[in-house]
Amino acid sequence: MKMAARVIDVHKDYVLKGGVVVRALRGVSIDFPEGDFVAIMGSSGSGKSTLLNLLGCLDRCTRGQYLLGGQDVSQLDDDELSDIRSRNLGFIFQSYNLIAQLSVVENIELPLYYQGNISREARERCVQMAEMVGLSDRLDHRPFQLSGGQQQRVAIARALVNNPHVILADEPTGNLDSATGEEIMQVLEALNAAGKTIIMVTHEPDIAARAHRTLRMKDGLLDAHTPYGALT
Amino acid sequence: MGSRFWQTLRLGLKSLLLHKLRSGLAILGIFIGVTAVIWLVAMGEGVSYQAQQQIKELGANNIIIRSTKPPSDVTRGGGFIIAYGLLRDDYDRIVANVPTLVQAVPMREIRKEARYLDKVTDVRLVGCTAKYLEMNNLRISRGRFLSDKDLENADNVAVIAGTTAQELFPYEDPIGQSVQVEKDFYVIVGQTEPKNPSGGIGGSMAAQDFNLDIYIPLSTLRGRIGDQVVTSRAGSREGERVELSQITATVHDLSQVDETAEVIKKLLARSHPNVDYTIVVPKELLQQAEVLQMMFNLLLVLIAGIALLVGGIGIMNIMLATVTERTREIGIRRALGAKQRDIVSQFLSETVVLSATGGLLGVFFGFLCHPAIVGTRAVMRQLFPEVISSLPPNIQQLEPRIAPWSIVAAFLISVGVGVLFGLYPAQRAARMDPIEALRHE
Ligand SMILES: Nc1ncnc2c1ncn2[C@@H]1O[C@H](COP(=O)(O)OP(=O)(O)OP(=O)(O)O)[C@@H](O)[C@H]1O
Ligand SMILES: [Mg+2]
Hints:
Chain A is α/β, with parallel strands linked by helices. Chain A has 7 helices and 10 strands.
């Protein structure tokens, strides 16, 4: 089976002022096959976001190895990691994280812009993405003119525009009411059905239940009893 | 790459327009700095141009020797008559002993009253030779100037200057009329064109106003008036005896000026134990003026530089605030693939837009320097005429001259200031940890 991402014995230490070391990840190993849909759960401070940031190439592990689409990215420098983010990864955040002064299309366009791809085709692709999440009539709106659910749809369109290997979502429904959260989950499920690999952090068991499998984290480790659900 | 550049610039412009007041204030700082550079340099250039014109009018090839009253009472002669200054013998000695001279023009000037019928006016009575006209760049408007023959015969002829003519002959042609000075009458043979007075140069050379002159042959002046001038003041009589007020020596080539001045200095020192004369070398003045101008320009640039520095600090301040405010945005951009240099160029483009806008506005207002100064002066003259007339003439007549280099320099410096002061905030933005930036509220 082709792996979208592999994490091998990854450690992450934060050294605080005064030399105190916080061991946020203490040796995590896990494989994400292509087409996987994983929910990561665990108590607050257990290291979920830390793991997701490593997977998202926003940070580097202190020790261990991370393979993204077969490429070892654990030793890349800042510029190379930026490149990987703009080409191979899609982010969905709890608080949407749209840029306020940009319109819907311009927000969707950002990953392409940072790839250096500013063409008419790029713009067209952004419009297609907006259509896909049902916002084709809001292209020139600004984020504050949209509801929370609509903003999260823009964020999803933005996460998809560069056709990434993996989509990373940190509590994507955390700020939404259950009906809107449900809509967002339907969009994610549709994406997964179309073959996208999705890794999602959540606190809500019924959201986690929508994934193929659930990983549990505790004190910087994956819970040994985590059931590895079979891929459908 | 080109479209990326425009994209970045457009983005910068857009976020600047979000904070119009703030951006406007940042621009204002740079704008004032650039305008200050251009205006100050223009005024400096104007002053120096004026000074150089005045010095050139004295003639760069000339060496001017003037009689000056010595400070103490160590003078020739006795009694209440003070004798000092250049002698006719000095003139002869200079002509005989200085081979590099093309010519030497002697002159004697006295303040007198001139009369015609019932009209009286104060004049400068100048005894001179035929060469005096050309040497001072004077022009004849009517009749002729004094001739060598007038001098030989010591004729009672006179040439009068514009203002004198207006005072004495407001409605008549002065040519052929007789003007009276003391007890003597002089037949007017010519009139000179009006001329702008030359400003005083340093302390050694008082301002010369040629418009109140009456020129008569030097020999006539000697015969009719003599060397001695006696004035009664407050009951006591005092007088002075001066043979020549000034000798203007001219050399053929500029390179001979210094050496010739040296020779004349030595020559005069032999017969004048007390220094009762001054040697003015316009060429030296010109060089001094140039050095002075350079120092002045340097000072102006320093002042303007401080203005620009303050403008730059203003920009930096605003950009630091912007960066802090937009931490979240920076985090988002980084997460979506922006490299550090993308963030740097994003914020730098904003500062450059700010500073270049300020620079362009400054250049535009820089060009308004001349009308602004002339206009202000006109208004001031209307409102406070006594203030204006109390200013030194070179300020009253100052015509700012915009130096092209100052425009280019001011603009480039303003953009440079933008880059320099934008770099730190931009780097600070770029070096933020993306995760922390994303977490920022
Ligand atoms: N930048 C940092 N510096 C120091 N310690 C950190 C840093 N980021 C995270 N930590 C620590 O690492 C541990 C894991 O944090 P993490 O954010 O991954 O938790 P989480 O599982 O996402 O929690 P939550 O459910 O509350 O979001 C915590 O103890 C946290 O205090
Ligand atoms: Mg978290």
